[in-house]
Amino acid sequence: MGSDSDLDIMSEAAKLLEEFNVPCEVRVVSAHRTPDAMSEYAAGAQKRGLKVIIAGAGGSAHLPGMTASHTPLPVIAVPIRRSHHGHEAFWSNIKMPPGIPLATMPENGARNAALLAVEILGLSDQKLAASYESYRAKQRDSVTSADTKLQEQGWEKYLEETHG
Ligand code: RP5
Predict the structure, then answer these.
(1) Which pTM does this prediction carry?
(2) DSSP classification of residue 96
C-alpha cells in the first residue's frame, strides 16, 4: 500500500488471505515518496516467489500502475477512497493505457482483491481451489436460505424481523 494510512482498508485483504491460509507480505511502498523502493520491490517480486501483487493507494494512486509496469506478475489495484476524496484513485487505476494490464477493484475493495488473488492462485493449487469453492458454496447457501425464508414469510414480516 502507498501509506500506512491505507492499512485499515488493506488489512481486509490480509484477513481474507489468512482465512485461506495464503501467506502474504504486507508492505508500505510509495510510488511518490519512495519511488526507488517501489521499483525494486515490484521488479524483484517474481524472483522472490511472489505470485500476485495487490496494490492499494489513494489520491493520485500511481502505485498500482507503476508496480504493474515493473513486473509480469498479475497486479490487482485497490483504489482507496476516503470521505474527503473524489474518485481520482479509481480513475487513475482504471485508465491504464493498453499494454500494461491492471485488475482494478471497486473503491476500497480490498476483500475482493484478495478473492481474485485466491482465484488466480487456485489455478495451480487444487487445495486452495477447493477451499474457494466451499467459500462460494457457503455464500450461495446463505442467499438461497434468505430467499426461502422471504418466500415463506412475505417481505413485510421478513423486513421487520431482519431490520427491526
Ligand atoms: C497515497 O496517498 C496513499 O496510498 C494514501 O492513500 C494517500 C495519503 O497518504 P498519507 O498522506 O496518509 O500518508 O499515496
Answers:
(1) 0.95
(2) P
